[in-house]
Amino acid sequence: MNSKKIAIAAVGIAGLLTGTVSAGMAVADPSGTPTYRQLSGVGSDTTQGVMNGLANVITIGGQKVIGSYDAVGSANITTKDPATTPGCTIARPNGSGAGRTALSNSLAANNGCLDFSRSSSLNLAAATPGLTYVPFAVDAVSYAITPTSQIPRKLALTDLKAIYHCDPNYVGTGPNYDVTVYLPQAGSGTRSFWESTMGITDADVVAGVYPCIKDTKNGSPVEEHDGRVLDDKSIAPFSIAQYDAQSSQTIADVRGRAILGTIDDVAPNTLNSSFGVKRDVYNVIPTSKIGTAPWSTVFVGSNSLVCQQANVINTYGFATNANCGDTSKQTP
Predict the structure, then answer these.
(1) In the CATH hierarchy, which top-level class contains the domain 139-263?
(2) What is the largest CA-CA distance in the chain?
(3) Using one digit for the tens of pLDDT, what is the confidence trace for 162-192?
(4) Fewer CB within 10 Å, N side or C side of the chain?
(5) Per-residue pLDDT averaged across 9-33, rounded?
(6) Please, are residues 239 and 143 in contact by the beta-carbon 8 Å criterion?
């Protein structure tokens, strides 16, 4: 690494919480009754915790209506009661892209298995049937390193982009780079958002244009927001909301030794509202269902049941979204 551009950072920090799970944290996949819900959704790892939390408090007529299935877990999930809607045991989709694909496939088949998907990135590519991305919260993304990393805790965005462009002044040269530059697994909304922020394309990453970038470790995909992948010579994007929720034990703590870096002299603040690298997060619903309950009741408009739950949204580390419930972002 070029010492003129990036100084070595080697100061430790104390008090990191690791590996402890609070008894009160959100439970993976739908919990409680009814087992199968009116609105079944899959997708983003980033928003699975907050959607699980919302699923546990939002009711219509005293009944829970949101069934949110985690990005990782058992190989398959069953989203509807086999007695009334057979054929709804599917492979568990991992990430925003996989969730969108699963929703589109279900809608195209008209099988009733999925009703929405979670997405931490916006993708308005053509879809049939059409989809609407409904924002409900704001997240921000910083870079994660270890406390004893050779990578500084403070970087300019331009330096961060140079790292993700595999600039030899920052990462060394192959085949054994001084820095391992991680991206999450294919289909991740955080991957897509981070690539866009860094000014690189997924096609170029896959083609090996940036050979310092890896999305696997020891043969396994790098799961987003899991700091256990990091060592003192690696870097990865990390949702600030996820980091905060893991730190507070609201969701499972898989940060390992990860700490978040400061970008352009702005610290990764709680609720993220002033951080420079931020994004809306969405629930994706069929455009045809915007005016139809329970989609309209739960997701649509600033007075929707989701948008009324600001306290839950904040508890999971996200900032509230001024455009919560907006339906203007639709696929062609």
Answers:
(1) alpha beta
(2) 66
(3) 999 999 999 999 888 999 999 999 999 999 9
(4) C
(5) 47
(6) no
